[in-house]
Fold N-acyl homoserine lactonase AiiB.
Amino acid sequence: MKIVDFAKDQGGSKNGGNARPDRMKILEFGDGANKARIAPAIEVRPAAAPAPEPRWEPVSAPTASLAAAPKPKARSPFVGTRSLKMHVLDLGKLRLDKNFMVANSTVAMAKNPNPPGKLIDIPVSAFYIEHPDGNVLFDTGCHPDWAGPNGRWPQNLQDVFPVIGPDDCYLPHRLEAMGIGPNQIRHVVLSHLHCDHAGCIEFFRKSNIIVHEDEFAAAATHYAKRDHSTPYALRDFETWTRLDLNWREVGKLEPDHNIVDGVKLLNFGPGHSYGMLGLLVSLRDNPNVILAADACYTSENYGPPMKPPGISYDSIGFARTIQRIRALAEHNKADVWFGHDIPQFESLRKASEGWYE
């Protein structure tokens, strides 16, 4: 065993203007067979000022404050007491077979044994909520480097769910165009951890990352097993493990509660994925909104009658969640914004056009 002793040498302190910077001497002791030696002096220079942190700093893949507003007149049991602005972020589209969205959309019959599949382009979205008590982001979309031989997504996902959109459709570009940096967002709520919703988590290294505990456990399990057959992008997850992110897991029995005034976290539990979360947002000049994400893909899934999706971890849980969303919408006089509904998303006011409040 070597014992290393560190000491500072105030060299030049007696020579007036010939003073030299502090240096460090290392004295190493051998095991008895070798004599002690003095290691060469190591110059220790004063630490340089840290470089400013980039606004959006990606991680390489593995091999406007608001003034308080008067309390609005109550329209429903859930009403925020302070103003907020919700911005709809268009993050491109996924091109896929409609059967993934609505099960049995295309069915073979005796008269038509080989019906053609129907490719559709579904929206990918996120929602940025300005709030005086801390800004909130709901979902993060796909990672900009999803494609290619060294892309974040495995080849099977690239083939089945390719992203359609320009280079500036990804979340970092959308927020930067609004003058928003990652450190300005206090809470990042993830509906679930699939690759088209959680791709940009790594950018938010000072935010609270809110995810359902069962969803986090499921993603970790697929990562540990190197299972590339699911919509979890394992290279995304591996990147998260290398960062000191502020994860905040929502327990399976944890009740719904406000993250900030007027923004309520909805604990949907299993359904489309292992642990789904949503938001109920109270707006002053518009109907309240339930951000359902993939707890309900489209109005066609919502019904009535309810139609199951083609991708679902727990079909009974999915049906139960639809019933719960319907009850919440009625009780809170809220509109339901679905996760991938084409005509509904086209009708929404995008961040480049304005906001909802």
